[in-house]
Specification:
single chain, Alpha-Beta Plaits, Rossmann fold, seven-stranded mixed β-sheet, globular
Length: about 300
């Protein structure tokens, strides 16, 4: 495990109340750009959820700049998805050793029964047959705890169990959690791509930290720049982006290959994506749901 030193000047807790459709986008922004620790809380209103994010800043000026940028981002997202703009609250945490208390709340997380996400400071002893991915909460747990990540990882394992699958493309890889998980479970070649340079940097470092550089390659390339086809293509993003990428996702999936799409809210979004992908010759063979979220598995004949 790496040494984990903490230098805290100002620790702030942000409370963001947002429409469910913006959950993934805001969480990814907070984790990838702010290196924040993110938790989700369910509010009484079904269409809304509260995100709690912890961020460390050097001074008041830096915090103000980051807060202004966050407000701009959430307003732009709300306009794109035509929903009510999120509300943002903040509270300064005065305990100088708060980070130690915060770390105590994050324990090893089982994405699967044999795949564990472990913070770098945790002295975790894996059980027989367990695969361990070392990632810190500020970088990974915002996505590792989310239902869509868990469902995607379960579907990836299902594909590997049912078919001969050697190569995988992870579109919107984020911190690389799905790419690394697939490699740990036996995938021979994984390519992860993301348009966010912060995410690419974090994912590349995670791959190095977990000694997976021979199996996982992380790139800032867009999907059109990726060469060849893959046995499995995974995209855990949001509905509208998946629609925009439907043709490219289809093209990158090889014959008899599989396509996993996630980040979808059950209902109209699932129906929309299913109709679009099936119109390209795919057949849906599996559907997973957790709460309001859904993940879909297609096969390309």
């Amino acid at each position: 495990m790496r040494n984990y030193e903490v230098f805290i000047v100002k620790t702030v807790k942000l409370t963001i109340t947002t429409d469910l459709v913006l959950i993934d986008a805001i969480s990814d922004y907070l984790v990838g750009v702010w290196d924040a620790a993110v938790e989700f809380e369910v509010e009484s209103k079904e269409q809304h959820r509260v995100l709690s994010a912890i961020v460390e800043v050097a001074d008041e000026m830096q915090y103000t700049a980051l807060r202004d940028k966050l407000e701009t981002v959430v307003i732009e997202l709300a306009q794109i998805f035509t929903v009510t703009p999120p509300t943002i609250g903040s509270q300064e945490l005065t305990e100088k050793d708060w980070s130690t208390q915060w770390r105590s709340r994050f324990k090893p997380l089982h994405l699967l029964d044999n795949l564990v996400i472990v913070p770098s400071w945790e002295d975790y002893q894996p059980k027989t047959g367990e695969h361990v991915i070392e990632m810190d909460p500020g970088m990974a747990f915002g996505t590792g705890q989310h239902e869509t990540t868990q469902m995607c990882m379960a579907l990836i394992r299902l594909v590997q169990q049912r078919s001969t699958t050697h190569s995988m493309l992870d579109v919107g890889t984020g911190t690389g959690i799905l790419a690394m998980g697939a490699a740990c479970l036996g995938m021979k070649s994984v390519v992860g791509i993301d348009h966010d340079p912060e995410a690419v940097s974090a994912a590349q470092q995670n791959v190095i930290n977990n000694s997976l550089v021979d199996l996982v390659s992380i790139s800032p390339a867009v999907i059109d720049q990726v060469r060849g086809q893959f046995d499995l293509v995974v995209a855990n993003i949001v509905h509208d982006v998946l629609l925009d990428l439907a043709e490219q996702l289809s093209e990158k999936t090889g014959t008899d290959g599989h396509l996993i799409l996630s980040g979808l809210i059950e209902g109209s979004q699932v129906r929309s994506i299913t109709a679009t992908i099936e119109s390209k010759g795919f057949q849906m063979v599996e559907k997973s749901t957790k709460g309001e979220w859904a993940s879909l598995l297609f096969v390309k004949p």
